[in-house]
Amino acid sequence: MIDVHLTTSRLGDLLGTLAHPHRLLLVIALEEGACDASTLTRKVGISQLGVMEHLRVLRAHHIVTERRENGRTSYELAWPGIVGWLTMGLAFIEGHLSVPAGRLVELPKAGGA
């Protein structure tokens, strides 16, 4: 049986980690395959220092893995399927861009429709 409290807690941690736009861009950039930090810097358009800091956070949360070969370090997604999930989230947001921030989903009022 699934422990809903544990699962929602872990999902909250994941969403919190991905809450920064640069981290989202890095994850999407890694969909194409493993890259080094210089390539990611060019793809995402932020400083290499910024890329390295965000990669550190993504690695610490097991979203990105690091591989060292021949003196070079490359980064790749630990779970490539996450990009499809994020793409669905982006499509959801794009479909609601005309809605004021903080009001993406209208909650039903208590006591009926």
Report on this structure.
This protein has 113 residues and is mostly helical. It has a domain at 20-95: Orthogonal Bundle (Arc Repressor Mutant, subunit A). Helix content is 51%, strand content 11%. It contains five helices and two strands, in the order ααααββα. It has helices at residues 4-17, 21-29, 37-44, 48-60, 82-95, and strands at residues 64-69, 72-77. The chain has a two-stranded antiparallel ribbon. α3 (37-44) packs across α4 (48-60). 14% of the residues are buried. Residues 104-108 have low confidence and may be disordered.
Nutshell version of this structure?
Strands 1-2 form a two-stranded antiparallel ribbon.
What are the main properties of this structure?
single chain; 113 residues; mainly alpha; Arc Repressor Mutant, subunit A; two-stranded antiparallel ribbon; 5 helices; 51% helix
